[in-house]
Amino acid sequence: MTSKKIYVAGHRGMVGSAILRKLDTEGYKNIVTKTLSELDLTNQSETEKFVLSERPDIVIVAAAKVGGILANNTYRAEFLYDNLMIEANLIHSAHKAGVEKLIFLGSSCIYPKLAPQPLKEEYLLTDSLEETNEPYAIAKIAGIKLCENYYRQYGSNFISAMPTNLYGPNDNFDLKSSHVLPALMRKFHEAKVNKSDSVVIWGSGKPKREFLHVDDLANGIYFLMKNVGAADLYSKNISQINIGTGVDLSILELAEKVKAVVGYDGKIEMDSSKPDGTPRKLMDVSLAHELGWKHTISLDEGIASTYKWFLENNK
Question: How many Cβ atoms are within 10 Å of 190's Cβ, its own excluded?
């Protein structure tokens, strides 16, 4: 198995780099990667030529245009177009090349805004999406359905995994485009360095979110690669598998945890004029547990190790 040729799309991102670390740890050496300057995945002919030339055994689609509420709501057309093109080009090319297995990575935002909690796989497409990240979610849903229907029409062993909110090494800490946990980490760190009296956080602080360390996700993707095939999912009449912790907390509770790890002793102020997003997004991870995978890194442990990485890499 370790001799398999694996193409990791998006290897420089937080998720892709974690997957590379996991594959290296497990002894996989035949890994194919391309940077954006070397291969534009939104270009169909470029992507097809590359995949047909390399003919990898396994493709892991971790490439995507990603961001938090602000980025999603600002660059709506780009988030829809770029993600549609990346996934469609890779999935179709993998089919044409006879790829043995493909794992497509989505996001918990694919589920309806007001879906019952926790979010079960079968809730997909049962109601309206959250408005601020609707374009990104629609693109990811299209990718999920591409994988499912390449299996249903051609028998392609293509599956989709839906991670919850991720954080860890190589995260994006840019306040204009980052997700909530790295944004909080940078805010508290800068406030500590600048000796600011308070830190302002978007929204009411009441929405609840679930957080998974990216190394846990990499372990989950590796587990799926080794143990779960398309028939295992689609025979259950579901289109994707959730990868998360099954535990959530409020944004304010998260802020307090990050504040403590950073060592900031000022006040937290909430800006209620800013959007909250979805009230709650907790994954039902019972299927993953049933199949044999479970996360191992606690949130407290993960925040501490991520802040250590941040200090070492953001001079």
Answer: 14
Q: Which H or E element spans position 297?
A: none
286: tokens are: 């019972």
Residue ranges per domain, the chain?
6-170+210-245+282-297
Asked if CATH classification 1.10.8.60 holds for the domain at 6-170+210-245+282-297, the reply, yes or no, is no
Coil/strand/helix, residue 32: strand
Measured distance CA(111)–CA(233) in Å, rounded:
17
Report the relative pairing of strands 211-213 and 267-271 from DSSP bridges. Answer: unpaired
Q: What is the pLDDT along the chain (315 residues), one digit of tens a residue?
A: 789 999 999 999 999 999 999 999 999 999 999 998 999 999 999 999 999 999 999 999 999 887 666 767 787 999 899 999 999 999 999 999 999 999 999 998 899 988 999 999 999 999 999 888 899 999 999 999 999 999 999 999 999 999 999 999 999 888 777 788 999 999 999 999 999 999 999 899 999 999 999 999 999 999 999 999 999 999 999 999 999 999 999 999 999 999 999 999 999 999 989 888 778 889 999 999 999 999 999 999 999 999 999 999 976
Asked if the peptide bond before residue 118 counts as cis, ω within 30 degrees of 0, the response is yes
Q: Report DSSP letters for 48-76, one per residue.
A: HHHHHHH--SEEEE-------HHHHHHSH
Residues 6+ away with beta carbon under 8 Å from 273: none
Whether residue 210 contacts residue 165, with contact meaning beta carbons closer than 8 Å, is answered with yes
3 state SS for 82-110: HHHHHHHHHHHHHHHCCCCEEEEECCHHH
Alpha carbons 216 and 243: distance in angstroms, whole number:
9
Decide if 136 is catalytic. yes
**Nearest Cα residue to 100 out of 237, 292, 230, 222:** 230
Rounded distance, CA 281 to CA 108, Å? 7
